[in-house]
């Protein structure tokens, strides 16, 4: 079976584990015959959105660009994994609607208390101190997905468990050949 | 033979026929088994570079973004055809170097007198009148490619002839299975 393209859209707080999960999944999907590109939030900002800030308008523009590229990739047979916070429900819906390939939204859920405690990049501390403005979860909203295809709880699951649940979903949906 | 991905990078003056040629080639390449995306200058500006102007810096940023997306597509087996003026040699070289798939630069050549006479979008007239600033060929430089893989002369050739020469090159290069 030739795997068809799809967009695996991760959304969740900074530090919830989106990039970790994306980087964990990418080689597994490649091993199983998929072409894979990870569109990581930071990398995409550097390449497509330099100069944009974190106002709602700029965030939306950034997300639209990621969605545009993910769509180009996925409709050409690639598995595009996006790993941007993408905090606003409306723009996630817009991206879902414009995507012509299959769109799988994955809510990478972790309680604010957990990600703030981890604070892997030291950003929450800066956000609490007001050094970083418009920080999702602290001074900017995160709108939880209500109909995500997959929800993973990274505060309770290992990355292998979360990845396994996503892979199972992709198999059930017929987007990935069963092992 | 499975066709591998490549970037077909068109460069040339506004009105030289880049988009026309791209739109002519796309269905032919699809018919011959390629996955094809046309990254047209105007469309890409709308989707990736809204807010950017036509200063050298902004043009370079726009071209880098097109190059980034073309690379993502081509390294995943797609034929990415870009149709932006891309007037500066240095940034074209930069994009060529970052592209991990095959990169084919096509100089879509037409004398300024010819494209100005055509003036399909009425832009040259506005540029001459000073209504549009930084207009390539009039008030902004166009740096001709010195080592383009293919040069087509749209002032003298039909679109079929130009397309035929590009297809022949792709066959010779082993990027397209011969008919």
CATH topology call of chain A: Rossmann fold
For the record, what is the CATH homologous superfamily label of chain A?
P-loop containing nucleotide triphosphate hydrolases
What's the CATH first level of chain A?
A: Alpha Beta
- Shape descriptor of chain A reads globular
Explain what this protein looks like in three dimensions:
2 copies of one chain form a homodimer. The first copy, chain A, has 179 residues and is of the alpha/beta class. Chain A has one domain: 3-Layer(aba) Sandwich (Rossmann fold), CATH 3.40.50.300. In chain A, 44% of the residues lie in helices and 17% in strands. The first copy, chain A, contains 7 helices and 5 strands. Chain A has helices spanning 18-31, 41-48, 56-74, 89-98, 112-118, 123-128, 159-172, and strands spanning 6-11, 35-40, 78-83, 102-109, 150-153. In chain A, strands 2-3-1-4-5 form a 5-stranded parallel beta sheet, with helices on both faces. In chain A, helix 1 crosses helix 7 and helix 3 (56-74) packs parallel to helix 4 (89-98). The longest helix of chain A has 19 residues, at 56-74. The first copy, chain A, is globular, with a radius of gyration of 16 Å. Chains A and B meet through helix 3 of A and helix 3 of B.
Brief summary:
The structure is a homodimer of 179-residue chains. Chain A has helices at residues 18-31, 41-48, 56-74, 89-98, 112-118, 123-128, 159-172; strands at residues 6-11, 35-40, 78-83, 102-109, 150-153.
């Amino acid at each position: 079976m030739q795997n068809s393209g799809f967009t695996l859209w991760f959304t969740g707080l900074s530090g919830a584990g989106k990039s970790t999960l994306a980087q964990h999944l990418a080689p597994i999907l490649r091993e199983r015959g998929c072409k894979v590109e990870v569109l990581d939030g930071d990398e995409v900002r550097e390449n497509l959105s330099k100069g944009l800030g974190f106002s709602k308008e700029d965030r939306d523009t950034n997300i639209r660009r990621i969605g545009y590229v993910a769509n180009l990739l996925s409709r050409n047979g690639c598995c595009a994994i996006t790993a941007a916070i993408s905090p606003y429900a409306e723009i996630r819906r817009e991206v879902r609607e414009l995507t012509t390939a299959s769109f799988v939204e994955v809510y990478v859920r972790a309680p604010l208390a957990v990600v703030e405690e981890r604070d892997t990049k030291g950003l929450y501390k800066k956000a609490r101190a007001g050094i970083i403005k418009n920080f999702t979860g602290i001074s900017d909203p995160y709108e939880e997905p209500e109909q995500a295809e997959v929800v993973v709880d990274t505060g309770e699951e290992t990355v292998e468990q979360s990845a396994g649940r996503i892979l199972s979903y992709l198999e059930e949906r017929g987007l990935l050949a069963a092992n």
